[in-house]
Structure formats: C-alpha cells, structure tokens
Amino acid sequence: MDRSDRPTRGVLIPPEEGGPFPERLGPCGWSSEDPGEFQWDIVTRGRAHWLLARDAVATGWLAAAMHGLPHWADSEPVVFFSTHTRRSARSRFGAKFRTPPADLVTVRPDPLFPELRSVDAATAAVQCLSSVMRGKKTW
C-alpha cells in the first residue's frame, strides 16, 4: 500500500509491475500525448471517482474518452452529472459535479465497469466541441 497511488480519497491503485510508478498508459492501451498535471489517464481517474459516487453519469471529456477518444482528454478534469447534491472539488484533481438535464440519455460503454453510465457519444462530442469553442480547451 505504501507504493500504491491514490487517484482520489479512499481509492488506491497498486503500482505497475516492474517500475517505481505507473506508466502513463490508459485502459484502452494508448498513451496521452500531453498528460498535463495528472498522473493517471482520465478514464482511470473517472472510474476511481465513480466508485465513491455510483449514481454519477460521466460527461464531457471523460465520456469522450470512454467512447474511445484516444487524445486530448487526459489533461482535463473529471466531470459527472449527478442528481444528488455534491460539492465539486475545489482542486483540479477532484471530480466536478453538475446537475443533469431533464432529457439525459445514458449508455454504458465501459466493459470493465458496466454499471458506470456515460452520456452518449454524440452528446460528449458536442460538450467537448463546446469547451473548445468557449476557449476552455486549447492545444
């Protein structure tokens, strides 16, 4: 446990075999081009945060990564929709929670975490493009 990483409070990930710290390799086998300040890819961080908020629905860049986007998402924070009142993290490393729209459509794209719901791929694409158009995401 001393060598395990803690992507969020209460969740430990064991160290990668053969190295002092985990490789920057996402669960789908790709490596982030620009890891930013996060040690773990966004899907791993999203799964860890979801374990503590099982009703939450992945949205934005997390949802895009869950649907297979191999680039650009790993440098973004984890964002969920949740009907329960939760305080969003004050730091960039914690999960952000937003109120879901009334017509929210969800899917379950993660075969390793089949209960983890996400917005559909089209909604995730619109959310990501919107963040680019508003200047919140740049390359």
Short description:
This protein has three helices and seven strands, in the order ββαβαββββα. With 139 residues, it is of the alpha/beta class.
Description:
There is one protein chain. The chain is α/β, with parallel strands linked by helices. It has one domain. The protein has three helices and seven strands. The termini are far apart.
Radius of gyration: 15 Å
Strand content: 5-15%
List the secondary-structure elements in sequence, H or E: EEHEHEEEEH
What is the count of helical runs?
3
Give start-end ranges of low-pLDDT stretches. none
Strand order, biggest sheet?
5-4-3-7-6
Structural class: alpha/beta
Number of strands: 7
Arithmetic mean of pLDDT = 80
Give the distance, in angstroms, between the N- and C-terminal Cα atoms. Answer: 36 Å
Biggest pleated sheet: 5 strands, mixed
Instruction: Label the overall shape.
Output: globular
Assembly state: single chain
Which short descriptors sum up this protein?
139 residues, two-stranded antiparallel ribbon, alpha/beta, 3 helices
Write the layout of secondary structure elements.
Layout: E1 5-8, E2 11-13, H1 42-50, E3 57-58, H2 60-66, E4 79-81, E5 96-98, E6 106-107, E7 117-119, H3 121-133
Parallel strand pairs: 3-7, 4-5
Antiparallel strand pairs: 1-2, 3-4, 6-7
Helix pairs in contact: 2-3
